[in-house]
Amino acid sequence: MQRIGVFICWCGSNIAATVDVKKVAETIKSEPGVVYSENYQYMCSENGQQLIKQAIKEHNLTGIVVGSCSPRMHEATFRKTAEAAGLNPYMVEIANIREHCSWIHKDMDEATEKAIVLVRTAIAKVKLNAPLQAGESPVVKRALVIGGGIAGIQAALDIADAGFEVDIVEKNATIGGRMAQLDKTFPTLDCSACILTPKMVDCAQHEKIDILSYSEVEEVKGFVGNFNVKIRRKARYVDETKCTGCKICMEKCPSKKGLNTFNMGLNNRPAIHIPFAQAIPNVAVIDPEQCIKLKTGKCGICQKFCGAGAIDYEQKDTFVEREYGAIVVATGFKPIALDNFNEYGYAENKDVITSLELERLMNAAGPTDGVLLRPSDGKHPKVITFIQCVGSRDTSGCGKPYCSKICCMYTAKHAMLIREKYPDTEVHVFYIDVRTPGKNYDEFYRRAVEQYGVDYIKGMVGKVYNENGKLMVQGSNLIDNEQITIESDLVVLATAIEPEPSIRKVATLLTASIDTNNFLTESHAKLRPVESPTAGVYLAGVCQGPKDIPETVSQASACAAKVIGLLAKDKLKTNPCVAVPDEMMCNGCSQCANVCAYGAITYVDKEFRLGGGKTEIRRVASVNPAVCQGCGACTVTCPSGTMDLKGFSSKQIMSEVEAICKK
Amino acid sequence: MKDVELKMLERAKQLLESGEVARVIGWKKGEFYFDPAPASFETVEELGDFVYNGFCGANLSKYLIQASKKEGKTAIFLKPCDSYSFNQLVKEHRIVRENIHVIAIECQGKLDIEKIKAQGISAVTEVEEEGESVTVSSLYGETKLNKAEILLGKCASCKGKTHQVKDEEIILHEMPAPINNRFDEVAKLEAMTEDERFAFWREQLQKCIRCNACRNVCPACSCVKCVFDNPASGIEAKANDDKFEEQLFHIIRAFHVAGRCTDCGECSRVCPQNIPLHLLNRKFIKDIDGLYGEFQAGETDNGKTPLTSYTESDVEPNNALGGEAK
Amino acid sequence: MLKIAKERLNELYAKINETMGLFMPIKKAGEVNYHVWGEGKEVSLETLKTVKSPKNMFFPQTENMMKFKTEGKNIEIVDVREKLAAAAEDKPFVMFGVKACDYKAIEVLDKVFLAEPVDTYYQIRRNAATIVTLACSKPEESCFCSVFGIDATAPQGDVTTWLDENYLYWQANTEKGENLTKLVETLFEKGGEAEVETQKANTQAILEKLPFANLDLSRFKPENLNELFDDTRWEEMSEACLGCGTCTFVCPTCQCFDIRDFKTNEGVIRYRCWDSCMYSDFTLMAHGNSHTTQMQRFRQRFMHKLVYYPSQNDGLYSCVGCGRCVNKCPQRLNIVKVIKTLGGNKND
Amino acid sequence: MTKEERIENIKRISGTDVRKCMKCGKCSGRCPAFKDMDIKPHQFVTMLGKGEIDKLLESKAIWNCLSCMACVERCPRGVAPAAVVEAIRDTVVRMQGKNGIKAEEIPPIVDELIPQQLLVSAYRKYNK
Amino acid sequence: MQEVTTKKKEFTPNIVAFCCNWCSYAGADLAGSSRLSYPANVKIIRVPCSCRVNPTFVLKAFQQGADGVILCGCHPGDCHYVTGNYYTRRRMALLFNFLNYMGIEKERTRVEWVSAAEGQRFSAVMNDFVKTITELGENKRLTDLRVKEGE
Questions:
Q1: Domain segments of chain B: what residues?
Q2: Cα angle at A21 between A17 and A24, to 5 degrees?
Q3: Do B123 and C138 touch (CB under 8 A)?
Q4: Around Cβ A256, how many Cβ atoms within 10 Å?
Q5: Which end of chain B is less congested by CB atoms within 10 angstroms, N or C?
Q6: Which residues of chain E have a CB within 8 Å of the CB of B234?
Q7: Which pLDDT belongs to residue A599?
């Protein structure tokens, strides 16, 4: 039999002025199960809490109801009070007789009557409360970073520096990501390689960091603190431990006509290659689509010439399985395909290029050794026109509805660099808006205009066409209300960016949610911007939304801080108000797992006794209390009522309903 | 139809003799032509009672929940509409698909003996089917009936004669085209006033004797323990004396199978009081189709149901109301 | 013997209804069941088998037994029988048109509910009832009352009636019947013996031809209990059984019930409601369930009808051959199949 | 009809939401009849938005617009300047009392691919 | 008996409101701290998320004599549990439609999204709902007579 104690707070006059607190306390005394009922001026005060503690001990209370302000205010306080008196903190219920009663009603009788009902309702619930214990789960002190771009690198370094093991899984043959392809970076114009490659080397040399390049995540099991991840190490046909990076194979390879993807396909590379000079790991990889040996069985030249004996044509994909406590997703981005934008003539004209292609053309290690030559004839372009917002801010369905955020700044950078290096070049920029929020950003853009004389035209391009070898860029100049046509030698499209397509698979594996633009969703846009709703999964870089390098690095470090905070704990305390299945009734139909936003539900085959000596194996749901957030979506989806929610059980809610309806 | 029966029998014999399957689920002869019962045949001898005729209306797929757990493979004869239930059960992991051999069989629409009797024919001794006409003999004489008038309710609004799953098929004749009228009766009710609808359902549900036949026959009601049998659920009830109970049971049952009900029509077929229970489930189906896009449960054996999925632009509950045009 | 023209039956009903309650087969929402008669109701005397049997009138599907009124921490127990008895005395009732099989079923129930300890709830209603039976003239294929020695052409009851195309014939058998006759006598004229005899003969001829007329019950004896219980064929007979309660709820003799509590605004109502041995939670006890498989539950039902009950009631079977389960079983299982499988046909 | 009603009417006929315009000028950047347009395609949208329809109703541009739909095709925001032009034209024609064209005047064989709006606007224009 | 008749004179509906902990319950708190009144016959049950509300709770409320049931949750897209209210939206759209199909007055059930900042709206919604139910009258169609009779 429950022994319930009821404590009615006056909250000074906040409650007592409209609710006859003494009458409430008195009336409640006759409720079945109530053995103690008291009222006091401030229950949350030291003395009030003392009163509660004393009553719990003296009257041997098994549960208490505090009629006071909102549980959002003092539930935690009274739970601690109960705990201090030796009562399980979850045996406390709050009747909200302030916000939901005294403050909104004026008539004393009415408010008092309602307060009695609210207290009765809380009593009905607390009678069905069960003592709950917050669970604990151990934490594996190792983190996984998916993606080896600047976001992944920064997060890995920060985590490793704090003393935790980190694995970076990178799907390409080298880490470095998009930043490695860039020439200079805004707003300081330092060389991208100069600031990135030392970090890449740091990763390679850090004793706590393990780089799994040319690898992909295949399977993720487990939950925060205890992820079990299966990683596919794709066959690179080169033994990573033997290859010295001498590049003789690249010289000797007879199949040299592969598109150099690192250079955005602007030149060719051999079938066996190291993506770029500062690649980490500095190990060759064979493109099986291009390799003559792998395609026809004949050739084997690289093997012959490899002094280290690193070439292995028989290599197969292998799998490694590792345990992690936390996962950082940093899968990055790619420019969108321009198939929907025929008006810019990208497909027809070699000299219409994307900004990322321009980066490679201007890079000292690029296809033109850093000399700006146009792709069609290798001549210096004299007139260069930039077009902004190509596919960004487009709600017509052809492009992306969002602003890609980085284009305004990198275009200013490009324009500035060109004007600096080749002062005889005319540079025009068609823009809709120039967006430069950020430290020293607007100054940077204004420098391009004021110092370098870049011609910014407010307006958009309607058409780019080739006339006698010249690129005619027809657009509007809204300031002058004119339509103009600029004869250009090179046209650069500020192409919108989108999340790397592999993000969909990663999101599915992690049960992380994704928005309509394929960006990963953060737990809270303002207050938890680097956490995924899936506990233990963190988001860094453009996989969460468009952002530039400084922002990406900040977010990566923020992720690292979150990961370090998590890995620093030996055990995780879990919210005890979680879903719990009654295996005896579970059909294993999987409907609950379908609505779980956190992937907290899995299924196991269990043996059940049927009576008469018979047994049956049934598939039943199992909830991981460390992952479940306690929303209750599963409880309603479950037709058999197998799923219930601790702290908000169906019976508790129904008894509240009954208490309210009892007139 | 006789040729189909013979072919099925022959195939069942082969499968049992060859040991390919351990049992075949089909129908067994009853006391009359019109009362075959579902049965599991484990030997060729048992097949002596095998039957397949116009009264084999029962949906056999639910029996597979138990059968697929038994040793050896189970072969089952599934009519087109039963195949939806089969898929739905596979989707919900209630049937181990690998243990089942599905034989898709022809169906020309099944007959309802109660409808025959409702024509005033009593003491029926023999029924003969011939194309569109059915001859009924009784102790009081012989009557010729038109098949369309005595089809089972579920067959009179057949949703199509295409099997959604099969390992092999026995289809010897062309099957009738789907009858696209299954929402007509729902629409008729929707067109009534609230008061009329309430009166209609009051009168119908008052008849309910809470025998649970609708629930127990329903392939979607495959719970190990039903909430209505479970004292811990808070809504357990055996009686249906009060009008609330009569409604509660049917509302909750319809909600629990919403998005999962394949509209196999078994609930109405088995109701001893002939309550049009399928009109409850069809309302959900119609609303789901109208509000969230066409969905047919059991069309596939995987994927989410309309109630376990959503779109960001779903209609607001307060605007989705009523049978009015959406 | 008395008779009344068919067209005047409404006058008869109205007359009875003046002083007594009148329950009879009435069609509502397409189905015929026993309902209170009233002007304009669709009476269907010809219906052989109402969906629910008339047992509902004495042993309702759900009935309140007592109430616990609570106020604060106090509980008051309220016995509802006083009210029930007062109402029964105030207005006794007539059950009109009960068929022979259903009348026999009431006898079966009486042996259960009126034996010590008497079920007072049942007794109050039973005593308040005058039963007017109606002879069958058009039995159907699922009927097999004759197997249990019931004469469908001449049912018992307080009053027996016969109906032909023109007249309802009336014959009182008991004191209650005489009293009822006195109440309505003015509406009747004398005669009809010959017509009744003709109808009886005609019906007998059909009864003999019914497909189940020759079921053999000889094996269903207490001494064969163990043998029948252990029969291996129960498994296959029950395999299609859904475990629904249709057969038990339409059965005129099934008498199992469950007692439960219902929480109200002012306390708790303790009520009883029909239960079914086909249900998985039937006779569920603290230690678990005595019948764990559907086969065991299925066997329980038919063993009870054909062996257990007769062994305690001088060989009286608790099946009356009404054939409702034959008609209503969703999967076409029924007692006839059981009798044939285990007992056979007399001619076999 | 008051001016406000007329503005609303033009907006309704055009079926386009002028507030969606982000003033990028792509429509005018592409307009092949730009130099003959005294009011430019993007201005049609902004001026309608501001309610300055008097100038639009008097403009020559409504008769010089080719109804080629390039502006509609190019707009990244799903705004249809040509539809605004057409709505203004329509309004002018109606204000002159010529309520549309007659069905029988439409040539019997019309290429299905020609947008109906183009056909109608061309017809009005050359019928002026 | 007399008490009953006097009660009947003036109908004050009994209303059960299910509010999610994160938005609507907080919205109700804000209505309170802003002193925005609504009738006392609205009683709130706190649930973690609107998706915790089982149709059986709604029916239970009607059985026990509630005259109106309202569910409040975070605005779609703002769910604390990411997707919870999306499921609520579908479930309740179908359930309420279905209840109406059974002849239950459509005004008796409602879903409203109220954020933690919308104290004003919470109060307005409740005032409007109480007004609607008061005009509609007592719930007679989905109530359990046994609960009310008691005696």
A1: 2-110+159-170, 113-150, 184-319
A2: 140
A3: yes
A4: 13
A5: C
A6: 56, 60
A7: 87
User: Region A277-284: what's the mean pLDDT?
Assistant: 95
Query: Domains (ranges, CATH) in chain E?
Result: 13-139 (3.40.50)
Taking only the tens place, the pLDDT of each residue in D9-65 is: 999 989 889 999 999 999 999 999 999 899 999 999 999 999 999 999 999 898 888
As a whole number of angstroms, the distance between CA A515 and CA D124 comes to: 47
Hey, is the C-beta of E77 within 8 angstroms of any chain B C-beta? Answer: yes
Residue A399 lies in a domain: yes
pLDDT at residue A21 tops 90 = yes
Listed as ranges, residues in chain E with pLDDT below 50 are 1-8, 150-151
D128 band by pLDDT with thresholds 50, 70 and 90 = very low
Please state the domain count of chain C. 1
Q: Kindly list the partner chains of chain B, i.e. chains with 3 or more CB atom pairs below 8 Å.
A: A, C, E
In a domain, residue C348? The reply is no
Domains parsed from chain D with CATH numbers:
3-126 (1.10.1060)
Q: Which of C71, C73, C234 to mutate to test the interface with A (most CBs of A within 10 A)?
A: C73
Identity (one letter) of the amino acid at B104?
A
Q: By C-alpha distance, which of A587, A580, A641 is closest to A616?
A: A587
Percent of residues, chain A, with pLDDT higher than 70: 100
Provide the CATH number for the domain around residue A402. 3.50.50.60
DSSP type of residue A101:
I
Whether C202 has its CB under 8 Å from any CB of chain A: the answer is no
Strand pairing of A490-495 and A352-354? parallel
Note whether E26 contacts A654, CB cutoff 8 Å: no
Helix then strand then coil, in percent of chain C rounded to 5, is 40, 25, 40
pLDDT, one tens digit per residue, over A551-599 is 999 999 999 999 999 999 999 888 899 999 999 999 999 999 999 988 8
Q: Are residues A391 and A492 in the same domain?
A: yes
Question: Chain B residue closest to C243 (CA)?
Answer: B216
Number of domains, chain A: 5
**E–A contact (≥3 CB pairs within 8 Å)?**
yes
CA torsion sign for A188, A193, A199, A202 is: negative
Residue of E nearest to B283 (CA): E98
Distance CA B239, CA C260 (A): 9
Q: Can you give the residue range of the structural domain that contains C271?
A: 2-342
Whether A657 is covered by a domain: the verdict is: no
Mean pLDDT of chain A: 94
Q: Tell me what percent of chain A is helix, strand and coil, each rounded to the nearest 5.
A: 30, 25, 45
Split at pLDDT 50, 70, 90, the class of B326 is very low
| Domain region containing A107 | 4-126
Return the number of CB contacts < 8 Å for C and E.
22
* Mutate: best of E50, E82, E102, E105, partner B, most B CBs <10 A: E102
